[in-house]
Design goal:
Blueprint (H helix, E strand, L loop, with lengths): L2 H14 L11 E7 L14 E9 L5 E6 L4 H30 L16
Antiparallel strand pairs: 1-2, 2-3
């Protein structure tokens, strides 16, 4: 099999492995421990309550934090993992595309002109 065909097949295989965009999340998940403030609670003297948060950074240095119930932590972890996978796949496909362009193995795509209304 020729190198060009190998690259194109690998690119197609990588493209088919992309996670569904509705299951992608750019964020960090972290856990804090805090006291609830109730005088009779065990956290007043001992072990604090776990709390989970999502943190997202935006352009301009702004960040947003969202508290998350522990039942949704596995979902958030999966979605964050999908985000990481997505970016790795984009990098891999981009490397293949660079190689195809470097070797001049890509044909120029013709743009279709929109039909004019009659």
């Amino acid at each position: 099999m020729k190198r060009r065909e190998q690259l194109e097949q690998k690119r197609k295989r990588l493209s088919s492995a992309l996670p569904a965009l509705e299951h992608v999340l750019r964020a960090s998940l972290f856990q804090r421990y805090r006291r609830c403030g109730k005088p009779g609670c065990h956290c007043a003297e001992g072990e604090e309550h776990p709390a989970f948060y999502l943190s997202v950074s935006f352009a301009g240095g702004k960040t947003s934090q969202v508290s998350l119930p522990k039942e949704l932590v596995p979902v958030a972890r999966d979605w964050i993992r999908n985000y990481d996978r997505l970016w790795q796949l984009i990098e891999d496909v981009s490397a293949i595309n660079r190689e195809l362009l470097r070797r001049r193995w890509v044909e120029r795509e013709r743009r279709r002109r929109p039909r004019r209304a009659k």
